[in-house]
Automatic annotation (TrEMBL):
Residues 109-239 form the tRNA/rRNA methyltransferase SpoU type domain. Gene3D superfamilies: 3.40.1280.10. GO terms for biological process: methylation; RNA processing. This is TrmH family RNA methyltransferase. Keywords: Methyltransferase, Transferase. The keyword Ligase does not apply. InterPro entries: Alpha/beta_knot_MTases, rRNA_Methyltransferase, SpoU_MeTrfase, tRNA_m1G_MTases_N. CDD domains: SpoU-like_rRNA-MTase (cd18095).
């Protein structure tokens, strides 16, 4: 078996940090390639697997190497309460683009247009995974694979497709952009091949995104409230898609 302490520094530059038991559990469950995984308490980690993830217990048992507490702490920026950390291979851009363009599309793609907040982006990846969305695409400068986004996504980047594109490169499909000035979403059935776009926390939808929009939709909101949080807007929209006939992948 390869020594995790030797391979970690070499892999850390190109791999994605899975921070904590739940991130590792999700990544393994959804097929991530995990070349190295460590824990400061193997017995506790496997007890968690028995309790919460019997489906991947065997794979976690084979993957996890116990290291000293100080060694674990030296490998991660912020120690996690479960004292588990791993590195996973980031899916290739080529495979991601192929998955985003595959037709017929059975579930929407979520587009975050120039998002700013890494925590929001992570929460949206988690939502997309939960609803079985085809993927999450960001435009602008935020890296959707930033460690803080991956932490917020709880390892669920591997359960959907996560990629950064320009507005010109967005996947095909009817573009529904969410904005408080749009038509009430409650009267609209979102098709499975919809591209659902959301604006930035600061300035909403960019002019470039608006110019490509086929339908502008609003979430119900009482007068005098300016807007909802970005991630909660995505949650309501994906819920609306699922409640009007779209179904999370089983
Ligand atoms: C925090 S809001 C942006 C607020 C920003 N100050 C603006 O001018 O629009 C982030 C994004 O969430 C979505 N959103 C928030 N509230 C919404 C609502 N009531 N209806 C539709 N979309 C909404 C929109 O896509 C919006 O661009």
């Amino acid at each position: 078996m390869t020594d995790p302490l030797r391979s970690w520094p070499r892999l850390a530059g190109t791999c994605v940090l899975l921070d904590g038991f739940h991130a590792l559990k999700h990544a393994v469950r959804f097929g991530a390639e995990v070349p190295v995984a460590v824990t400061a308490d193997r017995q506790a980690a496997l007890a968690l697997a028995d309790e919460l993830a019997p489906d991947v217990r065997e794979r976690l048992d084979a993957l996890l190497t116990e290291v000293a507490e100080e060694t674990y702490r030296a490998l991660v920026p912020r120690p996690h309460p479960t004292a588990v950390a791993a590195l996973a291979v980031r899916p290739s851009r080529r495979d991601n683009l192929r998955a985003l363009e595959r037709v017929p599309r059975r579930a929407p793609v979520v587009v975050l247009d120039q998002p700013r907040n890494l925590g929001n982006a992570g929460a949206v990846v988690r939502l997309a995974a939960g609803f079985g969305a085809t993927g999450v695409v960001t435009t602008g400068t935020l890296d959707p694979w930033h460690p803080t986004v991956v932490r917020g996504g709880a390892g669920l980047h591997f359960a959907t497709v996560v990629e950064r594109l320009t507005v010109e490169e967005l996947p095909r499909g009817p573009l529904f952009a969410l904005d408080p000035e749009g038509e009430d979403i409650r009267g609209v059935k979102l098709p499975d091949d919809a591209v659902l776009a959301f604006g930035s926390e600061r300035s909403g939808l960019s002019a470039q995104l608006r110019s490509r929009t086929d339908h502008l939709l609003a979430l119900p909101m009482r007068p005098q409230v300016s807007s909802y949080n970005l991630a909660t807007s995505v949650a309501m929209t994906l819920y609306h898609w699922s409640a009007t006939g779209g179904a999370p992948a089983s």
